[in-house]
Design brief:
Elements (H helix, E strand, L loop, with lengths): L14 E4 H20 L9 E4 L5 E4 L2 H7 L5 H16 L4 H20 L4 H22 L1 E2 L7 H13 L8 H17 L14 E5 L7 E3 L1 E4 L11 E10 L19 H25 L3 E4 L5 H9 L3 E3 L4 H11 L3 E2 L11 E11 L2 E7 L8 E6 L2 H23 L2 E4 L3 H14 L6 H22 L4 H13 L5 E4 L4 E4 L6 E3 H19 L3 E4 L15 H4 L4
Parallel strand pairs: 5-14, 8-9, 8-11, 9-10
Antiparallel strand pairs: 1-19, 2-3, 4-15, 6-14, 7-13, 8-12, 12-13, 15-18, 16-17
Helix pairs in contact: 1-3, 1-4, 2-3, 3-4, 3-15, 4-13, 4-15, 5-12, 5-13, 5-15, 6-7, 6-11, 7-11, 8-9, 12-13, 12-14, 13-14
The protein binds adenosine-5'-triphosphate and magnesium ion (MG).
């Protein structure tokens, strides 16, 4: 009676990899990505040049930037990029470390899988190891006293450490000072309940001079020129009208055709337009403004009348800058010029157009509501300015991290070596196969000092031996002093990091490694990127031939 009918569930062209093959395939992809950024880690790390489809070049050492620019097809590899992005968004630094750690956690897991240890055992071992690692970070981190005499010095050290692995490392002393001053200025009068956000420290990039000319401006800098030559270039005691609307006669949405037969009608038509524009200026004058900052355009006629009234005006301001001006000067964002009144005006002690390199920029200084600082980022070329900007971003973030969570750890692999040692001790207390997983985790964490040593041209085996010895002797702050090529106390060497960064790195890397380990089936439908399935040209068929 019953006849065997084939049941077709998946489309014919669906590609499916399951079990050990799927795991191997995913792990391999992650390792490839992690290996790609390994050479970037640390003060002696190298940079990468990335060229996109349009031929645009990015030169960077920043893990997150490199990974974001890479055009990766493999879904598991994309997950590592997500790790870097998360770490970048949360704490701003440690992205390369997170990618490397994810890769090594999976590399170690691979050897355990080969030993027939079940993925769930590895996952639960990794989970326990992560908990322990976070405890270790808590135990060895040092609390910073925000009212202590060394507070600023420590913040500067943290910023310097973050920048020492970047192109700007030679200028890290002055830059670190600028960064700390910027963060503290913003933190000082942070409105109640508002989080300290690095985005509130705008950065204005300007090609010219050198990295060392990067400066901190106590105020807001807009890359805008005063719109009319007849306007003042400097206004003391500025009263600012901040407009969201255009100072133009709005065009009709549909094409309208007006037939004018009489020349006098033509004149009255133009007069009417002129009257409307003049009225706008009158409204601004009546409100008592001497500066107009417009998000949209300003008609030539309006410019002319504003100039006649001695009012300084700039137009086409970015939405984010409009928000900033609103917050700092107290100006309301006016969306209808008819509604503008004296209460809407914001204040600033000085608004002035100044020359910066070949450009003219508008400086807004002495704002009453809250202070604002701008970093004027300088460098010889586009690519340099961009990389300086990224390094400053990392430094601003790590300083913020310590300000919001005043706790630091020591770098150069010191923390990693201690976590690794503690995990080995901890594994001895565990029963069963999880012990293997915790030991594997310890080995994976050691890949950080290992990579730092490799990149610095040191013998990683000697370095790891010395590190292990030091940590067994209880020297918890010993790490690799790269400039001397020796294992030394990193607290003395002042290689200081934010505890928050390290916690985030461990959590994110462990989470994604566990997630990838849990996958045993990859079903990719038509149109999905090629994953190099088993037996494919780049597939794990040859990679795993020894099983
Ligand atoms: N002077 C130093 N001596 C030894 N190690 C250092 C020194 N300065 C920084 N490091 C180490 O370099 C590593 C950081 O390198 P790097 O900044 O390239 O990577 P990342 O912070 O993980 O990623 P990214 O900055 O790209 O987001 C950390 O382990 C840090 O402790
Ligand atoms: Mg870094």
């Amino acid at each position: 009676m019953s006849q065997q009918v084939p049941v077709i569930v998946l489309r014919e062209d669906t590609e499916r990899t399951s079990g050990r093959d799927a795991q191997r395939n995913n792990i391999m992809a992650v390792i490839v990505i992690a290996e790609a950024v390994k050479s970037c880690l640390g003060p002696k790390g190298m940079d990468k040049m990335l060229v996109d489809g349009f031929g645009d070049i990015t030169v960077s050492n920043d893990g997150a930037t490199i990974l974001k620019e890479m055009d990766v097809a493999h879904p598991a590899a994309k997950m590592v990029i997500e790790v870097a992005k998360t770490v970048d968004a949360e704490v701003g630094d440690g992205t390369t470390t997170a990618a490397i750690l994810t890769g090594d956690l999976l590399k170690q897991a691979e050897t355990l899988l080969d030993k027939k240890i079940h993925p769930t055992t590895i996952i639960s071992g990794y989970r326990k190891a992560t908990e322990r690692a976070l405890e270790v970070i808590e135990e060895v981190s040092e609390t910073v006293d925000p009212s202590g005499p060394d507070y600023k010095k420590i913040l500067i050290d943290v910023a310097k450490t973050a920048m020492s692995s970047k192109f700007v490392s030679n200028s890290r002393d002055p830059l670190a000072r600028i960064v700390v001053e910027a963060v503290l200025a913003i933190a000082k009068d942070l409105p109640e309940g508002e989080e300290l956000d690095v985005d509130n420290i705008p950065r204005q990039k300007q090609i010219g001079k050198t990295v060392d000319s990067t400066e901190l401006v106590k105020g807001l800098v807009l890359d805008k020129e005063v719109v009319h030559a007849g306007m003042p270039k400097k206004v003391l005691g500025a009263k600012i009208a901040l407009l969201e609307c255009a100072l133009e006669v709005s065009k009709t949405e549909f094409d309208a055709k007006i037939s004018i037969t009489d020349p006098s009608a033509m004149q009255s038509f133009l007069d009417e337009e002129d009257r409307m524009l003049k009225e706008m200026v009158e409204k601004i004058v009546a409100a008592g403004a001497n500066v107009v900052i417009a998000q949209k355009g300003i008609d030539d006629v309006v410019q002319h009348y504003l100039a006649k009234e001695g009012i300084l005006a700039v137009r086409r301001i970015k939405k984010s800058d409009v928000e900033r001006i609103h917050k700092t000067t107290g100006a309301s964002i006016v969306s209808k010029i008819q509604n503008l009144s004296a209460e809407d005006l914001g204040k600033a002690k000085l608004i002035e157009q100044r020359d910066v390199a070949d450009d003219k920029m508008l400086f807004i200084e002495g704002t009453p509501k809250s202070s604002v600082v701008t970093l004027l980022v300088r460098g010889g070329t586009d690519h340099i300015v961009d990389e300086v900007d990224r390094a400053l971003n990392d430094a601003l973030y790590v300083v913020r991290d310590v300000v919001i969570h005043p706790s630091v750890t020591y770098g150069g692999g010191a923390l990693a070596a201690e976590i690794s040692k503690q995990l080995r001790d901890y594994s001895a207390t565990l029963e069963g196969r999880e012990q293997y997983a915790v030991n594997a985790y310890a080995d994976a964490v050691e890949s950080i000092p290992n990579t730092l040593a490799e990149n610095a041209g040191l013998d990683p085996i000697d370095v790891i031996v010395n590190l292990r010895k030091a940590h067994t002797e209880g020297k918890i702050y010993h790490g690799i002093e790269i400039s001397k090529g020796k294992v030394e106390d990193m607290k003395k060497a002042r290689v200081v990091e934010a505890a928050l960064v390290n916690k985030q790195v461990v959590m994110s890397a462990a989470e994604s490694a566990q997630m990838i380990l849990k996958i045993d089936d990859v079903i990719s439908s038509r149109g999905a990127p090629d994953m190099g399935g088993p037996g494919g040209p780049e597939g794990p068929g040859d990679f795993g031939a020894d099983e």
